[in-house]
Amino acid sequence: MAFEELGELLDESIELPIAGRIYTVPAPSAEIGLRTQALIHAAAVAADGGRADEQVLGDAAERDLYRDVLGPAHDEMIADGVKWPTLKHSAITAMVWIAQDKAAAERYWTAAGDPSRLAPNRAARRSQSGAESSTRSRGSSSGTSTRPAPARGAGKKSRKRH
Questions:
Q1: What's the pLDDT score for residue 4?
Q2: Cα 103 to the chain's mean position, in Å?
Q3: Contacting residues for 33 by C-beta, under 8 A, at least 6 apart
Q4: Which of 14, 53, 101, 148 is the most exposed place for a label (fewest CB within 10 A)?
Q5: Could you tell me the pLDDT band of residue 38, with boundaries at 50, 70 and 90?
Q6: Angle of helix 30-47 relative to helix 54-62, nearest 10 degrees?
Q7: How many Å apart are CA 109 and CA 155, to the nearest integer?
Q8: Is the distance from CB of 63 to CB of 34 less than 8 angstroms?
Q9: Residue 124 to residue 122: CA distance in whole angstroms
Q10: How many CB atoms are located within 10 Å of the residue 68 CB?
Q11: Are 131 and 124 in contact (CB under 8 A)?
């Protein structure tokens, strides 16, 4: 079995529909992809209270990351007068695509960046999976019992002291 041309196997662009137009974001260079992944990792570490790599964050701030991740779609959006929130959402969607995959980018895009829409609440997940009606409660796991404790000395022969 021979390897197929990789370009035929990989989906090397995403298409973002904005105001009746489709903007095509091509795959970034390896350098931009690696820098984007490093930036996202550093941001996640910082968000979790860890110490972020200041060099990575500083390098990203020095360069125009949004322009890099959107490629030619960036200039097209600017020329078309796309508003800042739309440009930002598009760039972050591209970053999610670069760092994760197309499915994650689509989820981010569809959720409009709202974290509460990215992770549905427990009731919604249960109703979607059908688990709501089939999962039984475990009851208390505190280690206490609802049964009454046996009376002291019950079951033992009581000895009277004389």
A1: 76
A2: 11
A3: 27, 98
A4: 148
A5: confident
A6: 130
A7: 68
A8: no
A9: 5
A10: 21
A11: no
pTM: 0.64
Rounded CA gap, 19 and 145, in Å? 62
- How far out from the chain centre does Cα 157 lie? 65
Checking if the pLDDT of 48 tops 80, the result is no
For every residue of the chain, which 3-state class applies, written as one string? CCCCCHHHHCCCEEEEEECCEEEEEECCCHHHHHHHHHHHHHHHHHHCCCCCCHHHHHHHHHCCHHHHHHCHHHHHHHHCCCCHHHHHHHHHHHHHHHHCCHHHHHHHHHCCCCHHHHCCCHHHHHHHHCHHHHCCCCCCCCCCCCCCCCCCCCCCCCCCCC
pLDDT of residue 67: 93
Q: Work out the widest C-alpha separation in the chain, in whole angstroms.
A: 105
Calculate the alpha carbon distances from 88 to 13, 70, 72, 85, 113 in Å. Answer: 18, 10, 15, 5, 10
Per the structure block, which two tokens stand in for 36? 């984007």
